[in-house]
Amino acid sequence: MNLKAKAYDLRKDALDIIVAGGGGHIGGDMSVMEVLVSLYFNQMNISPENMDDPDRDYFILSKGHSVEAYYAVLAEKGFLDKAELLEKFSKFGSPYIGHPNNKLPGIEMNSGSLGHGLPVSVGIALGNRMSGRDNRVYVVMGDGEMAEGSIWEAFMSGAMYKLDHLCAIIDRNHLQISGNTEDVMAHGALAEKIRAFGWHVIEVADGNDLDQVDAAFAEAKATVGKPTCIISNTVKGCGSSVMENKAAWHHKVPTAEEYAQIVKDFEARKEALA
Ligand SMILES: Cc1ncc(C[n+]2csc(CCOP(=O)(O)OP(=O)(O)O)c2C)c(N)n1
Ligand SMILES: [Mg+2]
Fold first, then answer.
1. Stretch 163-168: mean pLDDT
2. CATH number belonging to domain 3-273
3. Residue with CA at minimum distance from ligand 1 atom 25
4. Pocket lining: 116 vs ligand 1, CB cutoff 6 Å
5. How far apart (Å, rounded) are the C-alpha atoms in residues 88 and 239?
6. Is residue 122 classed exposed, middle or buried when 0-12, 13-18 and 19+ CB atoms within 10 A define those classes?
7. Which sequence spans correspond to the domains of the chain?
8. What residues sit around ligand 2, an ion, with C-beta below 5 angstroms?
9. Is the shortest distance between the CB of 176 and ligand 1 below 6 Å?
10. Is 142 in the pocket of ligand 1 (CB under 6 A)?
11. How far is ligand 2, taken at its centre, from the CA of residue 215, in Å?
12. pLDDT tens digit string along 113-149?
Protein backbone atom coordinates (compact mmCIF):
# COMPACT_ATOMS: atom_id res chain seq x y z
CA MET A 1 0.00 0.00 0.00
CA ASN A 2 1.29 3.48 -0.91
CA LEU A 3 0.70 5.13 2.44
CA LYS A 4 1.56 8.64 1.28
CA ALA A 5 -1.24 8.50 -1.27
CA LYS A 6 -3.46 6.70 1.23
CA ALA A 7 -3.22 9.75 3.53
CA TYR A 8 -4.98 11.78 0.81
CA ASP A 9 -7.66 9.13 0.30
CA LEU A 10 -8.27 9.21 4.05
CA ARG A 11 -8.47 13.02 3.95
CA LYS A 12 -11.22 12.58 1.36
CA ASP A 13 -12.98 10.07 3.65
CA ALA A 14 -12.82 12.54 6.57
CA LEU A 15 -14.15 15.28 4.29
CA ASP A 16 -17.05 13.06 3.19
CA ILE A 17 -17.87 12.17 6.82
CA ILE A 18 -18.02 15.89 7.64
CA VAL A 19 -20.24 16.70 4.66
CA ALA A 20 -22.55 13.75 5.46
CA GLY A 21 -22.84 14.76 9.11
CA GLY A 22 -23.22 18.47 8.42
CA GLY A 23 -20.25 19.59 10.53
CA GLY A 24 -16.77 18.77 11.70
CA HIS A 25 -13.33 20.01 12.70
CA ILE A 26 -11.85 19.84 9.25
CA GLY A 27 -8.62 21.87 9.67
CA GLY A 28 -7.13 19.73 12.44
CA ASP A 29 -8.27 16.53 10.69
CA MET A 30 -6.14 17.44 7.71
CA SER A 31 -3.03 18.51 9.66
CA VAL A 32 -2.81 15.36 11.78
CA MET A 33 -3.35 12.76 9.03
CA GLU A 34 0.25 11.62 8.43
CA VAL A 35 0.80 11.11 12.18
CA LEU A 36 -2.30 8.88 12.33
CA VAL A 37 -1.32 6.98 9.18
CA SER A 38 2.20 6.39 10.48
CA LEU A 39 0.94 5.21 13.87
CA TYR A 40 -1.79 2.89 12.59
CA PHE A 41 0.03 1.46 9.57
CA ASN A 42 3.73 1.62 10.46
CA GLN A 43 4.19 1.90 14.22
CA MET A 44 1.58 0.45 16.53
CA ASN A 45 0.77 -3.12 17.45
CA ILE A 46 -2.97 -2.59 17.30
CA SER A 47 -5.74 -4.18 15.23
CA PRO A 48 -9.37 -5.26 15.61
CA GLU A 49 -8.04 -8.72 16.52
CA ASN A 50 -5.88 -7.65 19.48
CA MET A 51 -7.92 -4.83 21.07
CA ASP A 52 -8.58 -6.97 24.14
CA ASP A 53 -4.93 -7.99 24.49
CA PRO A 54 -3.34 -6.06 27.39
CA ASP A 55 -0.06 -6.12 25.46
CA ARG A 56 -1.46 -4.05 22.57
CA ASP A 57 -0.14 -0.56 22.04
CA TYR A 58 -2.42 2.24 23.21
CA PHE A 59 -3.52 5.30 21.27
CA ILE A 60 -5.28 8.35 22.71
CA LEU A 61 -6.53 11.21 20.55
CA SER A 62 -6.38 13.98 23.12
CA LYS A 63 -7.37 16.60 20.54
CA GLY A 64 -10.62 14.70 20.21
CA HIS A 65 -12.22 17.20 17.86
CA SER A 66 -10.12 15.67 15.05
CA VAL A 67 -12.38 12.64 15.26
CA GLU A 68 -13.27 12.55 11.55
CA ALA A 69 -9.63 11.82 10.65
CA TYR A 70 -9.55 9.22 13.44
CA TYR A 71 -12.77 7.58 12.17
CA ALA A 72 -11.39 7.47 8.62
CA VAL A 73 -8.21 5.71 9.81
CA LEU A 74 -10.13 3.34 12.11
CA ALA A 75 -12.40 2.39 9.20
CA GLU A 76 -9.39 1.74 6.95
CA LYS A 77 -7.91 -0.44 9.70
CA GLY A 78 -11.14 -2.49 9.92
CA PHE A 79 -12.39 -1.22 13.29
CA LEU A 80 -15.34 0.73 11.87
CA ASP A 81 -17.56 0.49 8.82
CA LYS A 82 -17.20 3.36 6.39
CA ALA A 83 -20.76 3.14 4.97
CA GLU A 84 -22.22 3.17 8.48
CA LEU A 85 -20.09 6.17 9.41
CA LEU A 86 -21.37 8.11 6.41
CA GLU A 87 -24.93 7.20 7.26
CA LYS A 88 -24.82 7.85 11.00
CA PHE A 89 -22.09 10.39 11.80
CA SER A 90 -23.46 13.18 13.96
CA LYS A 91 -27.05 11.90 13.70
CA PHE A 92 -29.31 11.92 16.77
CA GLY A 93 -28.88 8.76 18.85
CA SER A 94 -25.85 7.59 16.87
CA PRO A 95 -22.65 6.40 18.63
CA TYR A 96 -20.61 8.17 15.90
CA ILE A 97 -20.57 11.47 17.70
CA GLY A 98 -18.36 14.46 16.96
CA HIS A 99 -15.71 13.43 19.49
CA PRO A 100 -14.17 10.00 20.28
CA ASN A 101 -16.55 7.65 22.04
CA ASN A 102 -15.02 4.64 23.79
CA LYS A 103 -18.13 2.57 23.14
CA LEU A 104 -16.91 2.29 19.54
CA PRO A 105 -14.39 -0.42 18.55
CA GLY A 106 -10.78 0.75 18.63
CA ILE A 107 -11.34 3.85 20.78
CA GLU A 108 -9.67 3.73 24.21
CA MET A 109 -10.87 6.98 25.72
CA ASN A 110 -13.62 9.55 25.43
CA SER A 111 -11.91 12.82 24.60
CA GLY A 112 -12.72 16.27 23.35
CA SER A 113 -12.44 18.23 26.54
CA LEU A 114 -8.85 19.27 25.87
CA GLY A 115 -6.08 18.68 28.38
CA HIS A 116 -6.87 15.15 29.52
CA GLY A 117 -5.15 12.82 27.05
CA LEU A 118 -1.61 13.23 28.34
CA PRO A 119 -2.50 12.77 32.04
CA VAL A 120 -4.46 9.60 31.20
CA SER A 121 -1.61 8.36 28.98
CA VAL A 122 0.89 8.83 31.81
CA GLY A 123 -1.35 6.63 33.96
CA ILE A 124 -1.68 3.94 31.28
CA ALA A 125 2.09 3.89 30.63
CA LEU A 126 2.85 3.68 34.36
CA GLY A 127 0.27 0.92 34.82
CA ASN A 128 1.70 -1.06 31.90
CA ARG A 129 5.18 -0.85 33.38
CA MET A 130 3.97 -1.86 36.86
CA SER A 131 2.35 -4.90 35.21
CA GLY A 132 5.67 -5.82 33.58
CA ARG A 133 4.48 -4.99 30.08
CA ASP A 134 6.56 -3.67 27.24
CA ASN A 135 3.84 -2.01 25.14
CA ARG A 136 3.87 1.60 24.07
CA VAL A 137 1.42 4.48 24.58
CA TYR A 138 0.91 7.24 22.01
CA VAL A 139 -1.08 10.42 22.57
CA VAL A 140 -1.80 13.17 20.06
CA MET A 141 -2.43 16.70 21.29
CA GLY A 142 -3.11 20.01 19.58
CA ASP A 143 -0.81 23.00 19.93
CA GLY A 144 -3.69 25.14 21.19
CA GLU A 145 -4.24 22.39 23.75
CA MET A 146 -0.90 23.32 25.32
CA ALA A 147 -2.76 26.14 27.11
CA GLU A 148 -4.26 23.52 29.44
CA GLY A 149 -2.40 23.35 32.77
CA SER A 150 -3.07 19.64 33.21
CA ILE A 151 -0.77 18.94 30.25
CA TRP A 152 2.16 20.48 32.10
CA GLU A 153 1.48 18.48 35.27
CA ALA A 154 1.56 15.38 33.09
CA PHE A 155 4.83 16.49 31.47
CA MET A 156 6.26 16.64 35.00
CA SER A 157 5.02 13.24 36.08
CA GLY A 158 5.91 11.49 32.81
CA ALA A 159 9.52 12.56 33.26
CA MET A 160 9.57 11.77 36.98
CA TYR A 161 8.50 8.18 36.30
CA LYS A 162 10.92 7.93 33.34
CA LEU A 163 8.15 6.64 31.07
CA ASP A 164 10.21 5.80 28.01
CA HIS A 165 7.33 3.80 26.49
CA LEU A 166 5.24 6.97 26.34
CA CYS A 167 5.30 9.17 23.24
CA ALA A 168 3.37 12.43 23.02
CA ILE A 169 2.84 14.11 19.68
CA ILE A 170 1.95 17.79 19.36
CA ASP A 171 0.21 18.63 16.09
CA ARG A 172 1.96 21.99 15.72
CA ASN A 173 -0.21 23.62 13.08
CA HIS A 174 0.18 27.08 14.68
CA LEU A 175 -3.57 27.70 14.78
CA GLN A 176 -6.24 27.01 17.31
CA ILE A 177 -9.96 27.78 17.32
CA SER A 178 -9.73 31.57 17.28
CA GLY A 179 -6.43 32.30 15.60
CA ASN A 180 -2.68 31.93 15.85
CA THR A 181 -1.48 30.11 18.96
CA GLU A 182 1.12 32.81 19.58
CA ASP A 183 -1.65 35.43 19.81
CA VAL A 184 -4.07 33.35 21.91
CA MET A 185 -1.61 31.77 24.38
CA ALA A 186 2.00 32.07 23.29
CA HIS A 187 4.13 28.93 23.39
CA GLY A 188 7.45 30.75 23.25
CA ALA A 189 10.29 28.22 23.16
CA LEU A 190 8.06 25.15 23.24
CA ALA A 191 10.74 22.51 22.57
CA GLU A 192 13.09 23.98 25.19
CA LYS A 193 10.28 24.10 27.76
CA ILE A 194 9.39 20.43 27.31
CA ARG A 195 13.08 19.48 27.33
CA ALA A 196 13.46 21.36 30.61
CA PHE A 197 10.62 19.22 31.99
CA GLY A 198 12.85 16.17 31.34
CA TRP A 199 11.52 14.83 28.05
CA HIS A 200 13.36 13.84 24.91
CA VAL A 201 12.04 16.25 22.26
CA ILE A 202 12.08 15.67 18.51
CA GLU A 203 11.10 18.47 16.15
CA VAL A 204 9.72 17.28 12.83
CA ALA A 205 10.22 20.00 10.20
CA ASP A 206 7.34 18.76 8.03
CA GLY A 207 4.81 16.65 9.89
CA ASN A 208 2.83 16.16 6.68
CA ASP A 209 5.77 14.22 5.22
CA LEU A 210 5.27 10.58 6.18
CA ASP A 211 8.99 9.73 5.98
CA GLN A 212 9.88 12.44 8.50
CA VAL A 213 7.11 11.30 10.83
CA ASP A 214 8.20 7.64 10.60
CA ALA A 215 11.79 8.66 11.38
CA ALA A 216 10.69 10.56 14.49
CA PHE A 217 8.77 7.52 15.79
CA ALA A 218 11.83 5.32 15.23
CA GLU A 219 13.91 7.74 17.31
CA ALA A 220 11.23 7.74 20.03
CA LYS A 221 11.32 3.93 20.19
CA ALA A 222 15.09 4.01 20.60
CA THR A 223 14.95 6.52 23.47
CA VAL A 224 15.61 5.02 26.89
CA GLY A 225 15.02 6.49 30.35
CA LYS A 226 12.69 9.36 29.45
CA PRO A 227 9.45 9.91 27.55
CA THR A 228 9.52 11.45 24.08
CA CYS A 229 7.58 14.41 22.76
CA ILE A 230 7.41 14.87 19.00
CA ILE A 231 6.61 18.40 17.90
CA SER A 232 5.20 17.81 14.45
CA ASN A 233 5.11 21.02 12.41
CA THR A 234 2.07 20.69 10.17
CA VAL A 235 -0.27 22.79 8.06
CA LYS A 236 -3.81 23.19 9.32
CA GLY A 237 -6.15 22.21 6.47
CA CYS A 238 -3.29 20.40 4.71
CA GLY A 239 -4.16 19.16 1.23
CA SER A 240 -5.95 22.09 -0.36
CA SER A 241 -5.23 25.81 -0.61
CA VAL A 242 -8.96 26.33 -0.01
CA MET A 243 -8.36 25.41 3.65
CA GLU A 244 -4.65 25.66 4.38
CA ASN A 245 -3.53 27.95 7.21
CA LYS A 246 -6.98 29.49 7.56
CA ALA A 247 -8.38 29.74 11.09
CA ALA A 248 -11.91 29.90 9.66
CA TRP A 249 -11.50 26.25 8.56
CA HIS A 250 -11.10 25.00 12.15
CA HIS A 251 -14.73 23.82 12.01
CA LYS A 252 -16.51 24.13 8.69
CA VAL A 253 -18.53 22.39 6.03
CA PRO A 254 -17.41 23.19 2.49
CA THR A 255 -19.86 24.46 -0.11
CA ALA A 256 -20.37 22.27 -3.19
CA GLU A 257 -17.85 24.42 -5.10
CA GLU A 258 -15.29 24.28 -2.31
CA TYR A 259 -15.78 20.53 -2.01
CA ALA A 260 -15.08 20.02 -5.72
CA GLN A 261 -11.92 22.14 -5.51
CA ILE A 262 -10.67 20.39 -2.38
CA VAL A 263 -11.12 16.94 -3.96
CA LYS A 264 -9.27 18.17 -7.09
CA ASP A 265 -6.44 19.48 -4.91
CA PHE A 266 -6.15 16.15 -3.06
CA GLU A 267 -5.82 14.34 -6.39
CA ALA A 268 -3.15 16.80 -7.56
CA ARG A 269 -1.17 16.27 -4.34
CA LYS A 270 -1.41 12.52 -4.83
CA GLU A 271 -0.14 12.79 -8.38
CA ALA A 272 2.75 14.96 -7.25
CA LEU A 273 3.75 12.19 -4.83
CA ALA A 274 3.79 9.50 -7.51
C1 LIG B 1 -11.28 22.19 27.75
C2 LIG B 1 -11.69 22.68 26.41
N3 LIG B 1 -11.76 24.00 26.19
C4 LIG B 1 -12.17 24.47 24.98
C5 LIG B 1 -12.50 23.59 23.99
C6 LIG B 1 -13.00 24.12 22.66
N7 LIG B 1 -12.06 23.87 21.58
C8 LIG B 1 -12.28 22.88 20.68
S9 LIG B 1 -11.06 22.77 19.57
C10 LIG B 1 -10.24 24.08 20.26
C11 LIG B 1 -8.95 24.57 19.69
C12 LIG B 1 -7.91 23.55 19.74
O13 LIG B 1 -6.79 23.97 19.03
P14 LIG B 1 -5.63 22.96 18.80
O15 LIG B 1 -5.35 22.22 20.04
O16 LIG B 1 -4.50 23.73 18.23
O17 LIG B 1 -6.25 21.94 17.74
P18 LIG B 1 -6.12 21.91 16.13
O19 LIG B 1 -5.48 23.16 15.68
O20 LIG B 1 -5.29 20.72 15.83
O21 LIG B 1 -7.51 21.76 15.62
C22 LIG B 1 -10.92 24.58 21.35
C23 LIG B 1 -10.46 25.71 22.17
C24 LIG B 1 -12.42 22.22 24.26
N25 LIG B 1 -12.71 21.30 23.32
N26 LIG B 1 -11.99 21.78 25.46
MG1 LIG C 1 -3.60 23.81 16.41
1. 98
2. 3.40.50.970
3. 113
4. no
5. 25
6. buried
7. 3-273
8. 142-144, 173, 175-176
9. yes
10. yes
11. 22
12. 999 999 999 999 999 999 999 999 999 999 999 999 9
Q: pLDDT per residue over 85-109, tens digit each? A: 999 999 999 999 999 999 999 999 9
pLDDT-derived band of residue 274, with 50, 70 and 90 as boundaries? Answer: confident
Q: How many Å lie between the centroid of ligand 1 and the Cα of residue 94?
A: 23
